[in-house]
Design goal:
With 333 residues, this protein is an alpha/beta fold. The chain has a single domain, classed as NADP-dependent oxidoreductase domain (TIM Barrel, Alpha-Beta Barrel), CATH 3.20.20.100. The chain contains ten helices and ten strands. The strands form two sheets. The chain has an eight-stranded parallel beta sheet with strand order 3-4-5-6-7-8-9-10. Strands 1-2 form a two-stranded antiparallel sheet. Helix 1 links the parallel strand 3 and strand 4. Helix 1 crosses helix 9 and helix 2 crosses helix 3. The N and C termini lie far apart (51 Å). Bound molecules: NADP nicotinamide-adenine-dinucleotide phosphate. NADP nicotinamide-adenine-dinucleotide phosphate (NAP) binds next to helix 9.
């Protein structure tokens, strides 16, 4: 079972480069070993995926790199046909080139297609730390610190180590504070986008500024880490409206989430190590689209249900996770 990659619709970035309208996530969390995730990446390349969302902090770039290398050597795919994305983690904001070179070495890919600043501040937390723990070194967003990190990314473009810069987990106030300062503009912004958390304002802002939105947790991440689960969270795929639309198309609600994402204009990056799931996710982009009425029904399912709250990045003195997201339209300090 595979999909001809040429049949997957393409998105044109502000630079004119084209990328697939769907990618594959690679965050195995604590549920899957690096080998299980890299095994899925190998299968996904065979299945027709050409875009992969990696990150230094996912702890599996070496294993994924073995898979890329084998695919290049076997001739399964050429380097130029893959869009490999990775991200600098918060503890490397002062040493971005080192992080980038490490990712390139681990991913065995010569250069990175899209290199993200994973979070817009250097606040670091140890993996699997308690959600209520506060790192005494954490601090609010700073334009100077962010731009220092961003300038290092621009230097990576100059050196040919990365092709494009991406930003992630931004808010409109933070974007407004830096949007005029870029020498090389970001081409994409990765944010949480799913039917119950559509973030219409930031979506529109990105589109208006020619920054392509990429949607993480496009299915509402039903098996996300404990720290990101709160009482009252809504399961997108369990909503009766989603189930009804899925039934009308004879598909799983996951497929409805992905069709909605692509038709709305964001690039979803769903994750699964299960072949049946990741293949049907890819196929969702070439099968019957949702009707306008179905798109409108999903538009009405917005519930402001942010799943990644980011509590672990709070600084001493911060009230709660809402402080990270500048909900009143100003950067919370
Ligand atoms: N930039 C950031 O800060 C950031 C933050 C979070 C995530 N991300 C990226 O976004 C990616 C996706 O997020 P995510 O993995 O948390 O959430 P997700 O893709 O919304 O959901 C993944 C879950 O959906 C299930 N699933 C996948 N395809 C399915 C299908 N066709 N039918 C039924 N169930 C299906 C999987 O179950 P099974 O395991 O049973 O298949 C898995 O539990 C990550 O891997 C990562 O690359 C980025």
């Amino acid at each position: 079972m595979s999909v001809d990659p040429n049949k997957i619709p393409k998105i044109t970035l502000s630079t004119g480069d084209q990328v697939p309208c769907i990618g594959m996530g690679t965050f195995g969390s604590d549920r899957f070993t690096p080998e299980e995730v890299s095994g899925a990446v190998a299968g996904a390349i065979r299945a027709g995926y050409r875009m992969f969302d990696c990150a230094a902090c996912y702890g599996n770039e070496k294993e994924i790199g073995e898979v890329f290398q084998a695919a290049f050597e076997e001739g399964a795919v050429e380097r130029k046909d893959l869009c490999i994305m990775t991200k600098v983690w918060n503890d490397m904001h002062r040493d971005v080139e080192k992080s980038c070179r490490q990712s390139i070495a681990d991913l065995k890919c010569d250069y990175i297609d899209i290199f993200f600043i994973h979070w817009p501040f250097p606040n670091y937390h140890a993996p699997f730390c308690d959600v209520d723990s506060r790192n005494p070194d954490s601090r609010p967003f700073s334009v100077e610190e962010f731009m220092d990190t961003y300038r290092q990314c621009e230097a990576l473009v100059d050196k040919g180590l990365i092709r494009h810069i991406g930003i992630s987990n931004m808010t409109i106030p933070k974007l407004e504070a830096v949007i005029d300062k870029f020498r090389i503009r970001p081409v994409v912004c990765e944010s949480e986008f799913h039917p119950c958390f559509q973030q219409q304002e930031i979506f529109d802002y990105l589109v208006a500024h020619d920054i392509q939105p990429i949607g993480y947790m496009p299915l509402g991440s039903p098996k996300r880490p404990e720290r990101d689960i709160e009482e009252g969270d809504i399961a997108d795929m369990e909503l009766p409206e989603m189930k009804a639309i899925a039934q009308a198309h004879g598909v799983h609600p996951a497929i409805v989430c992905l069709k909605w994402a692509v038709q709305r204009g964001q690039i979803p990056i769903p994750f699964s190590i299960h072949e049946k799931n990741y293949i049907s996710n890819l196929e969702s982009t070439i099968t019957e689209p949702l009707t306008e009425e179905e798109m409108n029904i999903i538009a009405s399912l917005e519930k402001n249900n942010r799943l990644v709250k980011g509590q672990v990045f709070l600084w001493p003195g911060a009230k709660d996770w809402h402080d990270l997201w500048d909900e009143d339209g100003v950067i919370v300090k």
